[in-house]
Amino acid sequence: DAGVIQSPRHEVTEMGQEVTLRCKPISGHNSLFWYRQTMMRGLELLIYFNNNVPIDDSGMPEDRFSAKMPNASFSTLKIQPSEPRDSAVYFCASSTGTGVTDTQYFGPGTRLTVL
Amino acid sequence: KNEVEQSPQNLTAQEGEFITINCSYSVGISALHWLQQHPGGGIVSLFMLSSGKKKHGRLIATINIQEKHSSLHITASHPRDSAVYICAAPLYSGGGADGLTFGKGTHLIIQP
Predict the structure, then answer these.
(1) Interior CA angle at A62 toward A57 and A68, to 5°?
(2) pLDDT at B37 over 70
(3) Which of A56, A89, A101 sits opposite B99 (nearest CB)?
(4) Residue range B6-31: average pLDDT?
(5) What pLDDT is attached to residue A99?
(6) Do B95 and A55 touch (CB under 8 A)?
(7) Which candidate, A67, A74, A60, places its Cα nearest to that of A23?
(8) Does A33 touch chain B (CB under 8 A)?
(9) What are the distances in angstroms from CA A16 to CA A9, A31, A83, A84, A91?
(10) Which residues does chain A have within 8 Å of residue B98's beta carbon, measured at their own beta carbons?
(11) Which of A42, A48, A89 is opposite residue B105, by nearest beta carbon?
């Protein structure tokens, strides 16, 4: 199994540009999570999906952030327009079941730098 | 205020020492996760436990649901154990899945 796949691995962009991060969960997993990690705040949950449906997006910082899961094998996290404070590592994770009593498998992360 | 608290924040020890990292949380949960993040940045799930104790190699995780406390122990520590160890709990239940709330992590360095 290839594990959770994220792309790109590194992204450098200028303030104001649109950024799209991509995630392919492990086949057969029906829960998908987007997390953000910064030095100041550590790891934070942004949004999670169950069976392709967004369950809770209260962690999304503001309207500039949006996430979609059009099918069971693909999700995107979009930032438009991007700002320097969005610089962070963004992780995607997937699990079977609800993720509560199931192991979450993390992707390698996307390191985003907004200049 | 983070509702998952870890201690210590930083820990440096000599190879072979017994290591304990503590985690406490503020609300009742059904399970707690321990994660490991290596210097390269990748995150690996070590344990998911809902009661008692789990062991994997030199790693042991315990949880006391009533006291809202968990510990991660490393026996016979080795420099390759150097990493950030993070505990996480599903504090906020959604309708069909539960994201995790993370502790700030414990940065462990094992010196040869």
Answers:
(1) 45
(2) yes
(3) A56
(4) 92
(5) 60
(6) yes
(7) A74
(8) yes
(9) 20, 31, 6, 9, 22
(10) 48, 98-100
(11) A42
Distance CA A104, CA A33 (A): 9
Per-residue pLDDT of chain A (115 residues; tens, 9 = 90+): 689 999 999 999 999 999 999 999 999 999 999 999 998 888 988 998 989 999 888 888 888 999 999 999 999 999 999 999 999 999 999 998 766 667 889 999 999 999 9
Say if residues A5 and A24 touch (Cβ distance below 8 Å): yes
Cα A44 to chain centroid, rounded: 11
E-strand spans in A18-87?
19-24, 31-38, 42-50, 53-56, 65-71, 74-79
Facing residue for A106 by CB, picked from B30, B43, B95: B43
A12 contacts: CB under 8 Å, gap ≥ 6: A113, A115
Tokens for B59, please give them.
Answer: 């790693």
